[in-house]
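In response to a reviewer's request, we include the raw inputs and outputs for one of the modeled complexes. The two entities were modeled together in a single run.
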Amino acid sequence: MTTGDAMAVDERSPDRDREPWITGAGMTPFSGEHDEPLDKLLENASLAALDDAGVGPEQLDLVVVGNMAAEAFSRQSGLANILVGSLGAYGASARRVESTSASGASAFESGVRALRSGAADYALVVGGEKMSTASTARSTEIVSRITHRREREQGVTLPGLAGLAADAYLDRYGAGREELARVPVKNHRNAVENEVAHFRKRIDVDDVIASPLIAEPLRLYDCCPTTDGAAAVVLQSGATGIDNRADGANDLTTTSDDATATPDDATATPDDSIPTPRSAAVRVAGVESAVDTHAVGDRPDVLSLGSVERAGMLAFESTDLTPGDVDLLCLHDAFSILEWLELEALGFHDHGSAWEATVEGVHDVDGALPVNPGGGLKARGHPIGATGLSQIVEAVWQLRGEVPAERAVANPSVALALNLAGFGNNAVCTLLSRS
Amino acid sequence: MNSKQADENSPRTDHLDEAALDAPVSTETADFVTCENCKRVWYYDRAVCPNCRGRSFERTPSEQGTVVARTTVHVTPDGVPQPLDLGLVS
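The model returned the following C-alpha cells for the whole complex.
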C-alpha cells in the first residue's frame, strides 16, 4: 500500500484483492430428459461459463462440483476429478460438495471462501444432477432418503412436510388455495421467455386447482419437477485485475495476460475459439449458510425456517446491504408454499403477509420485488445439485441485463439467491451486486 | 457397519443400515426421546441434546396433543401406504 496522494488509482487494499467476482456464467438447458450423461452436462455448463469469462481451464486453481446423488441416479462417483481431467485443468484443487438440494450453492460458498482466504484466484463452480435415469418411484425414493430416519419410518416425505406447512399457513393467515396457486402461475409465466427452462408454458389458477393432489392442499403444479441439467460460474478474485467502473464495464486486464501462459507444448498456440470476456463482472457481496433442526417436528413452528432466517441475516450483516437494496430474488420454490415462507424468513414481508404481496403483483417481474424471474424451481426445473448455481446464473444474467425484455427486471443492482436443503435443514443465501 | 439389526444405541451405524432404511412405515404411536441428563423431550432420536450436550437418551411414549396441521399424501415412496394421512401435533 502506498500512502496519501501517492496512492495510485488501481492500487487495491488486500481486502479488495480477495474480493470474489463472478466473471462467467453458463448452464445447459434444463429438461425432463437429457441425452447426455451427468459428466457431460457438467462439462457443457463449465465450458459455457469459462467461455463467458474468457478464462482458460489451465488458469483454474480450484474446481468445485455440487451434486447430491450421482451414485444413486447415475451410478457415478468422482465427478470433480472426471471434470478436471476432461477440461485439462491440471494442477487445480478439485472436490465435490454435497448438501442435498443446496449442494449447488454450498459448492459456490466453498469457492467464494477459497477466494476470500487467498487459497484460489480462479475458481470454477459447477452443479449438476441427472434425475431422468431413475423412474419416478425410484426418484421419489432417492429424494425421500434425505429426511430424518424417523420421519421416513412414518412415511414423511418432502411433499408431506410441504403439505403440512401449506395447511398451517392457509389456516393461520387466511390465504386461500387460489392465492397459493398464484405462485406457480407467476413462475410459469416468467419461464416462457427463459430458453433454458424445463417448462415454458403458461398455466392459470384453474390449471393448478385441477391438477392431481400430491399432499393436501398441495397439488402437482405446486411441486417442482425432476430435471436434468447443470449450471456453472467462474469466480475470480479482485487480485486478478477486475475493476468494476462506474459505468458497469469491467477491466479484465489480467485475464488476457494470463491467457499467454506457456502451454506444455511450446509450439501449441492458444485456441482462438476461447472468446474474450463478454460481460461485466458481478460482485459476490456476501454468501452465508446456516442449518436448522433436521427433523421438522423439532422446530418451534412448522412455518419457521430458522436456517433461512439465519443465513439471510448473516449474509446481509456481512455486507453494507439491507433487504431494501435488493432488486430481485431467486428463491427455492420446490413447493409453492416455500416461496412465501422464505420471503418472510428473509425479512421481506412480515409473517403471514407474503401471500398478499403475491396477489397484489409485488413479486411479478415488473413489481416492486420481483421473485423468480427465471421461473424458479417450479418452471425452470430442479436438477438438484444444479439448482443453487442456476439461481446464481439467472441473477447474473439479470444484473447484466442479458435476459429477454419480457422477464427482465428493470435496471437491477442487487440480487439475492436462496438455495434450500430438505425442508429447510440447510440454507445458503447469496447477495450479488453489479458494483 | 454391515449389521442388519437396527441397534437402538447406535444411531450412526443404524443410519447406514439398509434393513433399517427399508423398514416398513410405522403407523403406531410415535415415541419421543428424553435426554437422561436434563429430561428435555425431543421429537426424534439424536446424538447430542442441544439443551445440555447430553448423549444418553431414553425412549418415551408420546402423549396426546393438538393437531396443528394435517395433510393427506397421495404420492408416496414404495412401501408407504397411499394415501397417507399425516398430522403435526404440538
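As requested, we also summarize the result in words. The longest helix of chain B spans residues 11-15. The interface with chain A takes residues 11, 14-15, 20-21, 23, 25-26, 30, 42-45, 68-78, 80-81, 84, 86-88 of chain B (CB under 8 Å).
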